[in-house]
Amino acid sequence: MSAQNMNNTLLIGNLAVSPPLALAPMVGLSHTALRTLALELGGVGLMFTEMLSVTRLPQENVGASPFLMRYPEERPLFYQLFVSPGQDVLPAVERLHQLDAQGIDLNLGCPAPNMRKQGAGCFLTDDPDQVRNLVATLRRSTCLPLSAKIRLGISLDEPRLLDFCRMLEGEGVDLLSVHGRLHGEKFCRRPRWDWIGKVKTALTIPVLANGGIFCVEDARKCLEISGADGLMIGRGAAIRPWLFGEIAREIYGMSNLSSNDSAALHLEDIYFHFVRLLERFRPERRLGRLKQFTHYYGQNFTFGHHLAIAVQTSISVEQAVQRALHFFQERGKAQEA
Fold first, then answer.
1. DSSP assignment string, 209-236
2. Contact 237, 24 (CB under 8 A)
3. Which CA distances in Å does 245 have to 21, 105, 241, 252?
4. Nearest C-alpha neighbor of 303 from the set 287, 289, 321, 324
5. Of residues 194, 156, 158, 152, the one with CA closest to residue 177
6. Cβ pair 220, 17 in contact under 8 A
7. CA 191, 234, 16, 104 torsion-angle sign
8. Does residue 98 sit in helix, strand or coil?
9. Which CATH number fits domain 3-262: 3.20.20.70, 1.10.357.10, 3.30.70.1170, 1.10.10.410?
10. What is the pLDDT of residues 276-324, one digit of tens each?
11. Cα(80)–Cα(50) distance, rounded to whole angstroms?
């Protein structure tokens, strides 16, 4: 189906999501501040938390944990779990029921070194039978929609990949998000959207395509090549939080959204609004998250690396804000010259 004629509603189990655009789970980024910013700018239909340890989650203090902090408007929200071999997932699931989760996502794609040490993320997929048992346990323990996020595998092995994905569907996964790179591949490697298409063709559950989506044209090409039911956007959403709205209007025809494209936005205002949203966190939790966001958001500007460096070397949020103000003032002077 052409991306121009996509259905703008995604059915995940009994949950309807519109538009079919998801903010990806990202460590240090997919927290309440970025989720709220994306919601305010429009177009995001589904959100995910940062990955959560199944052993720590049951003891996390909702009032203090930056990972669990959430405001009522942040829905539908799926909580992403990472699991190591032999860990009991049932206490974590029960906690998510208490937290009013709209869904549970299983991390089977993170290739970070700390995941290797724990046998979690993409490294858990080395044992498909173990994953099968885990998914079956999750499915028995909840009526919530169940999703999983994967990469393409350790190598391009189509039968193995499709067998694994069919197994996930067969055990009760309602939604599969596929990052179009192999386990060991860096972000500089162009994602294989055509391989996401192989997964989409093999399954009956909805598939979200993830990887390499930074503008509307990227989104259009990805949908056309992969045939995916929707998109999951990660780094592109940290760089351009209004990207969801652009895609929703231009590809899914959702004209009811206000025009929040980059030409109509004051990028400086968005940045400092994000700073204000970080005030939801305890003071010691703000600076690191501001640094991480600025690393990406700075890419909107010709000399954005100057902004990123200035914030990265700050020792307090107050200093970071003053340095950011100076950057935008100097940028304004250069534009007027």
1. EESS--SHHHHHHHHHHH--SEEEESHH
2. yes
3. 9, 24, 9, 10
4. 324
5. 152
6. no
7. positive
8. helix
9. 3.20.20.70
10. 999 999 999 999 999 999 999 999 999 999 999 999 999 999 999 999 9
11. 6
Nearest alpha carbon to residue 214 among 186, 192, 242:
242
182: its two tokens: 């192999």
For 185, list phi and psi in degrees, rounded to 5.
-85, 140
Q: How many helices (H) and strands (E) does the chain have?
A: 13, 10
C-alpha span between 177 and 233 (Å, rounded): 11
Q: Which of 318, 267, 314, 263 is nearest to 291 (CA)?
A: 314
- Report d(CA 212, CA 231) in Å as an integer: 11
**Entry pTM:** 0.93
C-alpha–C-alpha distance, residues 36 and 224, integer Å: 29
Paired tokens of 67? 């990972």
Domain boundaries, the chain: 3-262, 266-336
Find where tokens 């995001």 sit. 44
pLDDT digits (tens, 9 = 90+) for 106-155: 999 998 888 988 988 999 999 999 999 999 999 999 999 999 999 999 99
Residues in the chain: 337
